[in-house]
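Appendix B, example 12.
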Amino acid sequence: MRKNIIIIDDSKEQSEGLAKGLGKIMPEYTFESYHVESEIQKAIENRFFSLAILDIRMDGFAVDGIGLAEKIFEVNPFANVIIVSAFKDEYFLRLKDLFLTGKVVDIQDKEDFDTWLPKLKKSIETYYSKLEKDPSEINNALLQFYSEAKNETDTYRKGERFEHFMSLMFQSIGFNQVLKRVKDQSLNEVDLIIRNDIEDNFIGKFGKYILVECKNKPEDKVNKNDFIVFQNKLKNTNGLSELGILATTGHITKNTYIEAVRESSESRKILFLSNPEIEKLIKAENKLSAFKSLIDDQVKDN
């Protein structure tokens, strides 16, 4: 798992100062700072992070740090938080409820950076050490999200939940930014666009972006038509994306695979993810290796 950490504070100086200071003493980690409410909301929804350092008091914001922590826990099953504040007593009762989630790594007072940074460093290292020893927490969270997506009865929420699950899946593989419901220049709507920012020679050859189409209809099958429509979306990226992913909770028809073989001379490739492939990714300890293996297996065949 990539060690991406976001820092949220209503003060630009505080958030940027922490990111810069921690980045110097922990160069193997990635720190991103956010201080504008709209950007914070976007980061929580779209950026991959496994830990957030979060101020409680957010002056002028519609929601305080505790509300932001609750939002993080709702949309990101991988993320825990470190709470920082000089006003803990004011939020005592709500902090107590937050601790019951089991996702609060630590709570710390704000201090001068020379005193404070080593304390934050210790808490961060302890958290990731525990996570690396027991990756099952991530896999269990993914499995739960996948089950909820498949079992949802409301049509709109069903699609939304599956898209969110796939976003989390690709973040767990190591992709840092996944955008949802994006329209490209030709006004084709794409369920997910993944920024291909993994430093890997094999994955890097597929262009700057990976497009994902999500089909959460277990009773239906992905057919040849679905493949052709999605392939045209890839073509419309003008080379920015050479890999597309058709993900489904259902099945893929035989004529879809035949069409993929027929189009195998194209530089653009489409990877099919149905139940067996998705479950393989969920259970894999090294999800990037498993993802590359799936691409290898399918691309050599089509």
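The first strand starts at residue 4 and ends at 8. The two ends are 30 Å apart (CA to CA).
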